Hints:
Layout: H1 9-29, H2 31-68, H3 74-118, H4 129-139, H5 142-170, H6 177-196, H7 198-221, H8 223-231, H9 235-261, H10 264-287, H11 293-334
Helix pairs in contact: 1-2, 1-5, 1-11, 2-3, 2-5, 2-11, 3-5, 4-7, 4-11, 5-11, 6-9, 6-10, 6-11, 7-8, 7-9, 10-11
Amino acid sequence: MKKIPELSFDGFKRQFTVCSRVLGVAWRVRKTAVLLFFIGAALEIGGFILALYATAALGGLLAAFITTGNTDMIWFWLAVDIIGGLVIAMAFVLMGYAKRLLYFGVARWATNTYLQMLCTIDLPEFYDEDRRNELNKIGNNYIWQLPSLADTTLDLLYGILRFLAITFIVAQINWWIVPLIALFLVPTLLAESKMARLSWFVWDEKGDERYIFWGLDWILRRAQGQMELRSTQASKYVLKKIDAMNSTFYSEQEKQFRLAHRSLLPTKILESTGTAIGAIVVLRQFLSNTISLERYFFLSGALLRIGSALNNIFGTLSRMQETVQFTDGFFNLIDIKPINVNVENAVTLDKKTTPEIVFENVS
């Protein structure tokens, strides 16, 4: 099995190109769904900040109530906190609805585009080993891979917007806190990205074999295929063949997964270091009377969430690896320009009448 390539600038550039193209497809097929998603994202981010601030204010008032017995504004901020939670819930419903609509539109576009490509590429392409392997890989997954990437790309943009909103809050602690947390999360991104690319590169090695697997699977699922297998007593042979192919395919994935997973635990421990440093800084500010209790709750709440926001972005980037690879292959296929095309001034046959075929000077 060939070695999995490491991440590179060109790789990130290619991912950006593929995701941008998928987002363009999503915009063309379902503009309303894309708009609804970003409206929902804006509502969720706004509701999150509102609830975070209300919770911090409520915490400060409750602390003051213990010593003063003053209940002014407590019920008000509780109501604001509840409203913020309702806004967040409704926003997620809207985002989920928009992504489902988008799934239907992109799946239909992908199906029509792929089948049209099959009807236009040159016939020798089907007999080229590398091209056939590519057709096998893409053909078995494109219907769900492209909608999945469109969905994940929207999640990534939402995650970035949410991170920027939290960054604006956390930056009030100290300007260097955010880049420090991001620095400690980079090793996790690299480790998870390597693991996410495993499936695609095993496919590269076993493309034709997996195509045979799906062919045998199709025979087993059909009544006619079952009659042929049972009449020839070949069922056990086919089942053993499938089991052997699956054993090879998944054992190679498991081997690569075990090797890649060794570096994941240390990176998870490391990523909490940045947040811990930020927590120490904001606590020192409170203890030195630089900030109030309410502001401490607000900033520390945002600080605890910025790590998860960054982790969500990096996690989304990692999960996108396989779908980006498949979608890149899909675009490479549909971009093929056939060599055998209609020549200039070609005679177009009349579709309403059957053409007459005449053999002349045939010996």
